[in-house]
Amino acid sequence: MNRNELMRRVQMLSFVLVDVSLYLDTHPSDRAALGFFNKYNALYQSARQDYEMNYGPLSITGTNDTNCWSWIDEPWPWQKEV
User: Fold this and answer.
1) Helix (H, G, I), strand (E, B) or coil at 14
2) Dihedral angle sign, alpha carbons of residues 51, 55, 58, 59
3) How far is it, in rounded angstroms, from Cα 81 to Cα 19?
4) 8 A C-beta contact, residue 37 and residue 24
5) Residues sharing a CB contact under 8 Å with residue 49, sequence separation 6 or more, in sequence order
6) pLDDT in tens, 51-82
7) Per-residue pLDDT reduced to its tens digit, 25-58
8) Which of 67, 75, 64 is nearest to 3 (CA)?
9) What phi, psi does 81 have (nearest 5°)?
10) CB-based burial of residue 31 (10 Å sphere; 0-12 exposed, 13-18 middle, 19+ buried)?
11) What is the pLDDT of residue 36?
């Protein structure tokens, strides 16, 4: 998967999580919805990790360099082309 495809996947999965979390806010006992959330959360975490390993952090929590504060390295995540 190239950079643009991987970014689109991260964005799509993020949208799915927001959408289902809104449903779960009003239906917290819905086991099927919770299972759906957990499944797509795992997919999101995996896609985000893949992106960050290959192209850099998407947010400040994506920095994993323990030797240097790499968050300040350009380009910033919002400056990267999608």
Assistant:
1) helix
2) positive
3) 25
4) yes
5) none
6) 988 888 888 777 766 677 666 666 666 676 65
7) 999 999 999 999 999 999 999 999 999 888 888 8
8) 75
9) -70, 140
10) exposed
11) 97
